[in-house]
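Posted in: Structural Biology > Protein-Ligand Complexes

Title: Requesting predicted complex, protoporphyrin IX containing FE in pocket

I'd be grateful if someone could produce the 3D structure tokens for the following input. Sequence and ligand are given below.
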Amino acid sequence: MLALSAILTLLFLCYLVVEFVKLQRKRQQHPPGPAPIPILGCLWQLKFFRLDRDILTEVAKSHGDIFTLWFGQVPVIILNGFQAVKDGLTTHPEDVAGRPVTPFFQAMANNKVASGIFLATGRTWRNQRRFSLMTLKRLGLGKMNLEYQIQEEARHLVETFMNAKGKPMNPSFALKLAVSNVICAVVFGHRFSNDDKTFHHLLEAVEFIFKFAGSLYYRLYDVFPWVMRCVPGPPKKTLSCCESVCSFIRKEISIHQSRGTSEEPADFIHCYLAQIEKSKDQLKPAYDEHNMIQSIFDLFLAGTETSSTTLCWALLYMVAYPDVQAKVQKEIDATVAPRQMICYEDRKNLPYTNAVIHEVQRFSTIISIGVSRLSVKDTMIRQFPIKKGIIILPNIASALMDPNEWETPREFNPSHFLDRDGKFTCREAFIPFSIGHRMCLGEHLARVELFIFFSNLLKAFTFHLPEGVKEINTEPIWGGTLQPHYFEICTKPR
Ligand code: HEM
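-- Reply #1 --
Done. Output follows.
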């Protein structure tokens, strides 16, 4: 028995040595980086999966702003700092426009080829993305004006805050309801009432999926899928949350199908059903129900969590920096009539308010480490040859906090977006929506939402801490999006 375990240990040690030598050889084909070890790769150096922007910036100090980290046995190219992110994603944008299908993504796609927008690559992605962009644009025009819809939601939100009657409240759920209702109106053609239980369940499912995406479970799933598939708890619950959202989408589609078609484009589902009908005689139709469900899923998830989290940070910063809040309100009072609802066009006369919103996005860096990309062919990033099928991870936060680009990167400072005359000025390194061919599809919608919600809330209320509360925690909670810790604020109508 002793001899057997000695032999097994020896065999295992031999395996480790062989793997170590192989890894060192493979390393030569990628940009430099810390030495990986068998099985774990560089995970021990990342404090086991803490893909923190600062840890990556620390590694960049020793290995350069483009370096390789091994997640288990998988090499991942990290782009750190604005210049590296820009060079990596925009020099040959088509070559790095793929999305890696990691084991968990594969499970989310029910082990089928990835469909929709977010997870897809190649022809499927190109068609779904183009169609979705075109449709969002189309629905923003004419009767179903998106901006009008956002103003309506801003009105409901002001009402919700007013109903709290100045008592302490956590604004997170109210913001989620408001923001999500905008994307619901676009894709489903209707909004939900604030106390609709189905809507609440959907939003809870979205929140769980995003939390999981930033968790240790998710990272472990991608490195040890065969183990994690058997583990009960968060991975299984996330897949069931995805299924609940998809089954809701299916129901909405069948309601649309039973209603039949109309001339006017009413909503995203309506437009997609018409597109399926139009392309059904093609040899390999690009539009089908499977892609429709996944595209709607992508729009609903991305369109709910991101803008509402940013607005939550915005309110937290306003109580943390009351002088900034007062300056925004002074500008609004001097520019907008008391009864008027602020619209997106007003941003041109509200440069300080606009600068504050941009600074909220920069400073909160909600998508801290960007979304992974995949090289779809052999390519070059600067002097480094990158083989087809390599994962590339842009450290978006490192660009938004790059000391070469921002005067005071670690301070909340709206002057980053103002010129000497106090006029609004955007900066090239402002890339919260990422850059390149896969940059955020909802950027325009998000910008309009953030401006209209934020400015109308500050026009209606002054936000302050509950009595007796002196400390504010502005550190983020790690997750698929960086979230503020639980906090309560009070509203004082103006
Ligand atoms: C503050 C709000 C938002 C931020 C910071 C944000 C940020 C991002 C980022 C960083 C990406 C990854 C891009 C890449 O792979 O390089 C992304 C992708 C995406 N976003 Fe957003 N987003 C926001 C709002 C929205 C909204 C409102 C929608 C819905 C209309 C949306 C829909 C999408 C979609 C569908 C993708 C996938 C694009 C693709 O793979 O081609 N996002 N977003």
